[in-house]
From TrEMBL:
Source organism of this protein record: Monopterus albus (Swamp eel)
Predominant location: other
Membrane topology according to the record: Lipid-anchor
Domain EF-hand intervals: 111-146
Gene Ontology biological process: cell differentiation
Keyword Plastid: no
Domain of life: Eukaryota
Pfam family, one: EF-hand_6
Name of the protein in question: Calcineurin B homologous protein 3
Family statement: Belongs to the calcineurin regulatory subunit family. CHP subfamily.
SUPFAM superfamilies: EF-hand
Length: 220
């Protein structure tokens, strides 16, 4: 048993260092990865799209794409993967890890910025460093359409108005004919400055509660 534990620790040491997850947490994540991938070495979009808890999520597409977005691998790469292996899966899951009591203020600030980058990337679908009106509108429309009481044109109008409000806040001297290129990460960070999100940003749709990283028994 001791030798097996030592071997597992050695095998996952790099991931533990990169993500801050413990050996037990990574082993639990590996168990869930094997369930989702149907015991294959890689995970496809179809594997995640088949998760029942995601079926009615209005931003299902953005959530799924986040796992294949190279920007979420804590590197400076762009583009997306066709499929991901276990290491890429764990790197994405690390964005949902809550802060620990032992963290310094500097580490907590770094974690917060990392989480904000992850959320920003989910909405910046064309990787141009800005959340455009069209990207913002699409997300708002999807969220509003879930109510079933709002027409598409009305949802679009609400989205446009919300974006214009963001524009006037971030660029207060804009003229009526000025074109707002979109929300930059700096603007996005400013919008969330009063929101405590470090401990709230976690996922349960994978049958994994990232506050504890314990796996459920579901296989879908």
């Amino acid at each position: 048993m001791g030798a097996s534990q030592t071997h597992s620790a050695y095998k996952y040491q790099d991931l533990m260092t990169k993500t801050g997850f413990s050996l037990e947490q990574i082993k639990n994540l590996h168990y869930r990865f094997r369930q989702l991938s149907e015991n294959n070495e890689t995970l496809s979009r179809e594997n995640l799209e088949n998760i029942k808890d995601l079926a009615d999520n209005p931003i299902k597409k953005q959530i799924v794409e986040a796992f294949f977005d190279k920007r979420n691998q804590h590197q400076n790469e762009m583009g997306s993967f066709e499929e991901i292996g276990f290491e890429q899966f764990v790197m994405v899951m690390s964005h949902f890890r809550p802060p620990t009591p032992k963290m310094t203020e500097e580490e907590k600030l770094a974690m917060r910025k990392d989480k904000l980058h992850f959320l920003f990337n989910m909405h910046d679908s064309d990787n141009d460093g800005k959340i455009t009106l069209e990207e913002y509108r699409k997300v708002v429309e999807e969220l509003l359409s879930m109510s079933g009481d709002i027409e598409k044109d009305t949802a679009r109008g609400i989205a446009d108005a919300a974006m214009l409000e963001v524009a006037s806040t971030n660029v207060p001297n804009m003229g009526p004919d000025d074109y707002y290129e979109g929300i930059t990460f700096e603007h996005f960070e400013q919008m969330f400055k009063e929101v405590e999100m470090e401990s709230r940003m976690h996922v349960r749709f994978l049958d994994v509660d990232t506050r504890t990283i314990h796996c459920g028994s579901s296989t879908s």
